[in-house]
Amino acid sequence: MIRTFSYIDVMYLVAAARWTLALTVTAFAGSAVLGLALALARIAPVAPLRWITAAYIHVVQGTPLLVWLFLIFFGLPLTGISVNPWIAAAVAFSIYGSAFLGEIWRGALISIARTQWEAGASLGLSLYEQLRHVIVPQSIRVAIPPTVGFLVQLIKNTSLAATIGFVELTREGQLTAAGTYKPFAVYITVAAIYFAMCFPLTQWSRSLERKLDVAR
Amino acid sequence: MKYGLQFRDVFAAWESILDGVLVTLFLSVCTMVGGLVIGVACAAARVYGPGWLKRLVGTYVEVVRNTPLLVQLFLIFFGLPSFGLRLDGLTAAIIALVINLGAYTTEIVRAGLQAVPKAQVEAGHSLGLSGLQVFRHVVMFPALKAMFPALASQFVLLMLATSVVSQISVQDLFHAASIVQSRTFRDFEVYTVIGVLYLGLAFAFRGLFAGIYYWAFVRR
Question: How far is it, in rounded angstroms, from Cα B208 to Cα B31?
Answer without folding.
Answer: 16
